[in-house]
Amino acid sequence: MSVLELKNISYSYDRKKYVLENINYTFEKGIIYAIVGKSGAGKTTLLSLLSSLASPTNGQIFLEGKDVSKIDKYRFRSTEVGVIFQNFNLLTHLTARENVLLSMDISAKRIPDKRKLAADLLRKVEIYDEDIDRRVLQLSGGQQQRVAIARALSYNPNIILADEPTGNLDLETQNEIMKIFRSLANDGKCVIIVTHSPDVAREADVVYELSKK
Hints:
By secondary structure, the protein is of the alpha/beta class. The protein has eight helices and ten strands. Strands 1, 2, 3, 5 and 6 form a five-stranded antiparallel sheet that branches. Strand 8, helix 7 and strand 9 form a beta-alpha-beta unit. It is globular and about 50 Å long.
């Protein structure tokens, strides 16, 4: 069974012109998906629907067979999906560890030793001891994106959604970030990446291309 399934999904801001129309996609664990398309094709809108930040105008989204519209939106966003943004969306006055800890607190999941787990997650994405308790503002762009990935993993979601996660990074750092995503897929996560980058799309297992309406 797919972890996420979109059935006849359409979205319109005014019920006249549709940004997305009759989208039927399936997403499985252990696979990296790339969502590509020209500007205005609806890539970010689709990501908003997948993360339940928006609801489809028509159609249904299923999480492991359950209609997402019947699941509490807050619980879905804070336990089922981890979202990574192009601009990181970190609290820059906090440390790397504190950003991850805050995400754990919001999820309200029972975690025995949050500080240790936060440090372990940061090490997993190659944020090492000398930077774990450093303010995010003092870290490089690549490091900040790694912190954002660790934050998204903090409550162990099965689905990782990433919006242009390498858009602000140089090629070497982009490749390092993609290695982390590959590792997450190998660990059984479903990784869905919205991207303009042909290099990122080539690294994906499945590519879904949206066309502009």
